[in-house]
Amino acid sequence: MSEDTLLDVLEVMHRIRETEETITRLRLSEDIVGSVHLCNGQEAIYAGAVRALELSRDAVFPTYRGHGWAIACGVPPEAVLAELLGRESGISGGRGGSAYFTAPAYGMYGENSIVGAGAPIACGAALAGRFDGSGRVAVASFGEGAMNQGAVHEAMNFAAAMTLPVVFLVENNTYSELTPTRDVVRNDQFFRRASAYGMAGVRFDGNDPDAVRDAVADAVERCRNGAGPVLLEAMTQRIVGHYIGDVQHYRPAGELDAAIAAEPIARAERMARAAGVGDAELAALRQRVVDEVDRAAQAALAAPLADPATVEEHVYA
Amino acid sequence: MPEIIEKTLSYAESVNAALARALEERPETLLFGEDVAIPGGVFGVTKGLRRKFGERVFDTPISESAILGGAVGSAMFGRRPIVEIMWADFALVAFDQIVNQAANVRYVSRGALTAPLTVRTQQGNAPGACAQHSQSLEALFAHIPGIRVCMPTTNQDAYDLLLSAIWSDDPTIVIENRTLYHGAKQPVRIGGPVQAVGGVGLRRSGSDLTVVTWGAMQHRVLAAAERAAAEGIDAEVLDARWIRPLDLDSILASVQRTGRLLVVHEAHTIGGVGAEVVSRVVESGVRLSSPPVRIGALETRIPAAVQLAARVLPADEDILGAIRRVAHDVPAGRVEAMPVGAR
Lengths: 317, 343
Description:
The structure holds two protein chains of two kinds.
Chain A: H1 3-28, H2 43-49, E1 59-61, H3 67-73, H4 77-84, H5 118-132, E2 138-143, H6 150-161, E3 166-172, E4 175-176, E5 179-180, H7 194-197, E6 200-205, H8 209-224, E7 230-235, H9 255-261, H10 264-274, H11 279-302
Parallel strand pairs in A: 1-2, 2-3, 3-7, 6-7
Antiparallel strand pairs in A: 4-5
Chain B: E1 5-9, H1 11-25, E2 29-33, H2 49-53, E3 57-59, H3 64-76, E4 80-85, H4 88-91, H5 95-101, H6 105-108, E5 118-122, H7 138-142, E6 148-150, H8 155-167, E7 172-176, H9 178-181, E8 186-190, E9 201-204, E10 209-213, H10 217-230, E11 235-239, E12 242-244, H11 248-258, E13 261-268, H12 273-284, E14 293-297, H13 306-312, H14 316-328
Parallel strand pairs in B: 2-3, 2-4, 4-5, 5-7, 6-7, 10-11, 10-13, 13-14
Antiparallel strand pairs in B: 1-8, 6-12, 9-11
Helix pairs in contact in B: 1-8, 3-5, 10-14, 11-12
Cofactor (chain A): thiamine diphosphate
GO biological process, one term (chain A): pyruvate decarboxylation to acetyl-CoA
Pfam family, one (chain A): E1_dh
């Protein structure tokens, strides 16, 4: 990865992280209420994957842990923060909240609070592409916990049987909510399931944005060439709880420290330093993003609340 | 718009004619589901459409989540999918895609995305059908804001309502009935303008009480109404063919004239759409001359044996008894004692 590219990716990862940190502060101050799921530690997947996508025609279907996808797709942090704060200026006007907002103008077709439910919908987006000539590739991204949902199985078989251009991107952070995933499956190498569907399956380091970009680029190319769906398994670690307030008592001693040591932002900074980027430049880059997200938070907090008089709008045509 | 011609069609042929018209006139339509394409459907309803319309009509795995999710996703991207869920009971394995997904697309995106999809399914009891192939589940669908639900019963409605559903920009559930598919052929007007969703069908004019019903049950209701007429009770029968949106205005206009209300459906009564009809009529403040009554399936599961199922579902005698009860303002339990012809 060139130095410019590395710094671009680092900036996106900082923007995701700072947005999540800001959300955490606003949740603890109760400006934001309700259940919030953060993606700290998984940023390289989003920052890497979008480099291989054409978001003007491709479509990403993330999950309730979707703030990072949104930011990587280009949704301004202010629109994400305003959404969680119930503002009219939120990306979904406060209708979606933390776990279910959508940003179709950015190629991000909605978080989903139902585990695995986005996978069949992504198949539909790919199916539409077969008839509209767009060459669209649909990316269904979900945690490895979703690999045990029936809808995901149905989607994988449907996509494979119909040779649909779908990239199933598993963000394997090794926890199914609070339960170690290896405790609830016989084989936790999920990419191996691909062959059962007649798909290619690839596992790679999800904390390496380059590895993610390459894997997604290969999968997208395969899809666009009409070779059908691909199952990607990006290995990563959450460095926060399943939700804000989850104290992660279930994680064995040392695991979190190891995850923090391997998390993608510090790692990308180490790579940048090795490539000759100075500490001052890295600090300035981060500070620029911190300031940007801080301004976004101030703007979001100052924005008007979504109007209760509008709650019955957009139910029907 | 094709000009109106009249053809003599069965209910199944009427559905097929509507699908053919939609596929012909709306290139964005897709038709898919289990066995719908090359086999032509387990009830033969979609026969010939694959041959005529090619890859826009295709067979799927036995995967209701994939079928419905595929419909939601393709609808979000400009297609107008029509999918078949072979039995309404089977929708339950993929209810998420209807309730949590399709119903929310427009709302959460504030209209930036829509889900103009049509789910064709069929429901109800038929001789020998088991508990998982017999339920009448319209209330489950109708409970969900964002979803439209209709239940065509006449051959004409099988054609008209399906087209209204396909033309609608909202996710719409069309609940057919397999006992009707291959019944008598009737003249059906094909072509002409597609109607907007909503409205009731007036199946029998009458002045003594209003019977609101829907689905195949209305044939029993109409038969019971004729028997009641012989006793001097003149029942008006409305087919509330659109369950959501419910055409309350038409129901109220009728009840205002008759002052009496009976609702008959094949579904269970508790939490059923009949409860909704009765509530809304009562809430409207219209003066009723006798307490409103609703009848539906008994509070039990649907057994397979014919004589058992017959006891569970509203029978002709049950409906006639309820008509008498409402017409004569007789307390429940005393219907049998009413002399025939008494007013």
